[in-house]
Amino acid sequence: DTEVTQTPKHLVMGMTNKKSLKCEQHMGHRAMYWYKQKAKKPPELMFVYSYEKLSINESVPSRFSPECPNSSLLNLHLHALQPEDSALYLCASSQGGQEGTGELFFGEGSRLTVL
Amino acid sequence: GNSVTQMEGPVTLSEEAFLTINCTYTATGYPSLFWYVQYPGEGLQLLLKATKADDKGSNKGFEATYRKETTSFHLEKGSVQVSDSAVYFCALSDQTAGSYQLTFGKGTKLSVIP
After folding, report:
1. Is A42 helix (H, G, I), strand (E, B) or coil?
2. Does residue A110 register a pLDDT over 90?
3. Any chain B CB within 8 A of the CB of A100?
């Protein structure tokens, strides 16, 4: 199984809503990532979890709250978002540092629209 | 810091034409290099990779060689198909604190017309 599964594929929410994006992998990877991708741009790193601990937070606003319940799951909780937060949110996983080749495996993404 | 520069396009080719997308990088140490492809409405898929100098990555007719002396990783394909229409990202991977940090180029949109 070499898949990273993201749900939902599409999400529309108002600025006062609370919602969550979910990501799951069963490759035994110990690092998981959230990226944000705007149209016609490369992905931008938001958060990294390494061995279930938050290791990198790229100065993301607090209205985005990541959670890693276990080594296979990664969530991104959304609250009080702004229309400019509309984007494709990509989850990725990789082997832990020193264990692999540096390859990240990406999911299909969750396309978020904030009204 | 690390950086990746790739030709930005868009690139439009006729079916069966030869494709080159240039990619150069700046990095400390010896990163792994990747080409990722993103088809319309989808996530990123790994197209090919190379982990050390002079390695050649290849997949689906695409090739790229890790050239340390020119710090380049150019993507080539001898005969493109309509189904190759997508955005292609060159990236390098650097190990950091139990995970990997990907640095992406800006992406090159390829359109192949019949």
Report:
1. coil
2. yes
3. yes
Q: Check CB contact under 8 Å for A101 and B44.
A: no
Q: How deeply is B65 buried, as exposed, middle or buried, from its count of CB atoms within 10 A (0-12, 13-18, 19+)?
A: middle
Count H helices and E strands in chain A, helices first: 0, 11
Distance of CA A8 to the CA centre of its chain: 12
Given CA atoms B25, A32, B37, A100 in this order, what sign does their dihedral have?
positive
Residues B14-54 have pLDDT tens digits of 999 999 999 999 998 889 999 999 999 899 999 999 999 99
Asked if A5 has any chain B CB less than 8 Å from its own CB, the reply is no
- Give the position of tokens 């991708």: A37
List of chain B residues whose C-beta atoms are within 8 Å of the C-beta of residue A51: 98
Partners of A57 on chain B (C-beta within 8 Å) are none
Amino acid at B32: S
Cis peptide before B40 (omega within 30 of 0): no
